[in-house]
Specification:
Elements (H helix, E strand, L loop, with lengths): L2 H9 L5 H15 L5 H4 L6 E8 L5 E8 L3 E3 L14
Antiparallel strand pairs: 1-2, 2-3
Length: 87
Amino acid sequence: MTVHEFIAKWRKVELKERSAAQEHFLDLCHVFDHPTPAAADPTGESFCFEKGAAKHGGGDGFADVWKRGFFGWLGIQGQAQGSRHRL
């Protein structure tokens, strides 16, 4: 998938975050020629969707996508610019 194809596809998508989050991330993997979570880690031990996580400041949460040693991704649709969530 090219960057232009990605933009064209996602510009017209009206799905809610939960309905689109995984496909959006998979498309990003394709744009950047990066293995998807299941292709890179079939067991889900180091790269997966819906990973439980402790929140910074206490409590439990989850990352929409998690890759050990790299990132925990929490996609929040319509979030005000500049606001952040920390896991």
